[in-house]
Amino acid sequence: MTKTKNDAPVLSASEADTHSSSDPDSSYNSGATPKSGNRPAERRIGAAALLIAAILLTAATLRSPLTGVGSLIGEIQSGTGLSHTAAGMLTTLPLIAFSIFALAAPKLGWRFGMERTMFFCMIIMTAGILLRSMPNNPALFLGTALIGSAIAVCNVLLPGLIKRDFPHRIGLMTSLYTSSMNGWAAIASGISIPLSRNAGWRGALVYWVILSAATALAWIPQLRRSGDKSRAKGASSYRKTGAVWKSAIAWQVTIFMGFQSIMFYIGISWLPEILQEQGMAPGTAGWMLSLMQIASMAGSFLMPLIASRTQSQKGLAAGSSALFLLGFGGVWLGSPALAPLFIMAIGLGCGTTFSLVILFFALRSRTADQAAGLSGMAQSLGYLLAAVGPTLFGFIHDQSGNWTVPLATITSLSLLTILFGYAAGRKGYIEAE
């Protein structure tokens, strides 16, 4: 299997080899055009369409159940009596789950099959969404943790499944799934407050059970393909990824991912409330979060196309990170009338830096095993670092009594993001060390 320079990186490359590309049922992308009456080819096209639908629906669930919480955080606090620190845990819990399950996801996919694992993740997510909407605080946090655990596994397995089943369309399929992920995240941010006006904040959050349940149904036709015949090979690949933990380049990529994730999750957690305290209407503040997601979607789609054609990405990484400095610094010190501009800068920074990190998994490694190891390391430790952000941001607000100190803090962290982005963007490979 070849991989072009423009192809998107794969988060769980250990699963990419679990199906032989010579098996006509293991890849939907042979490039053959079915002739009239060629029923096997027609069936393969139909199966490919069902798989693409499952992939895009799964992508739609990877952020939307979480981004709506940021728009409703004020209502959630009013209804539950949570402090800003405790409310920040609603975003921190999924990040902790991301960190824990990022390392376990490849093994789960190998053990049970990626399709079956995806299906059960959607069942778990559906249960978590229902539990989160129950009228007590422990259920709110437990349901949120279940949602985060399901998302964490899908985050890692989905790109590997794309590489396995669409080996010649990795770039296109990755663009489609990231666009679906960010697009639905934007929708969730924008419609949560309008939904809450009729159904309350719990009702607004439970609406997403429709999407997760539909996605679970979409995986049912794929379950027969979960019986891997090459698990021994996948297991061997899974065990060969430990060397990246000794690499300085791997640590630079990991820390860069952590800081850019802090920017994103603080943004979706607290920006609506900050803007409301600056005089913006609650509904408008919610749509500002949608604007941030739309800008992020544009950035994540375009940046890999640019970065994959350059020898070094240090300027792109530093420049993308500087958008956080402009955005959060503007919200802190700028005119509230310019808030849409600052929010767009934050969104572009989130999209471009995230897509660069994903691209670095491939650009900073020479083999699929190295890419898988770097991905697991960066997601695990990166999200663990990001998990500190929303809760710490809320804690600083509780201690200072205003948003000035938290905004000054995150603006300062933007400078560190620029530094580590520059370091991670320098040309080099893990094994060269």
UniProtKB/TrEMBL annotation:
UniProt keywords, alphabetically: Membrane, Transmembrane, Transmembrane helix, Transport
Record has Iron as a keyword: no
GO CC annotation: plasma membrane
Location of this chain's protein in the cell: Cell membrane
Gene3D superfamilies: MFS general substrate transporter like domains
Listed GO MF terms: transmembrane transporter activity
Transmembrane feature ranges: 45-66, 86-105, 117-134, 140-158, 170-193, 205-223, 244-266, 286-307, 316-335, 341-362, 374-397, 403-424
Membrane topology: Multi-pass membrane protein
Keyword Transmembrane: yes
InterPro entries, per database record: MFS (IPR011701), MFS_Cyanate_Porter (IPR052524), MFS_dom (IPR020846), MFS_trans_sf (IPR036259)
CDD domains on file: MFS_NIMT_CynX_like
Pfam families reported in the protein's UniProt record: MFS_1
Every Major facilitator superfamily (MFS) profile domain range: 49-429
Stretches the record annotates as Disordered: 1-40
PANTHER family referenced in this protein's UniProt entry, alphabetically: 2-NITROIMIDAZOLE TRANSPORTER (PTHR23523:SF2), PTHR23523
Name used for this protein in its record: MFS transporter
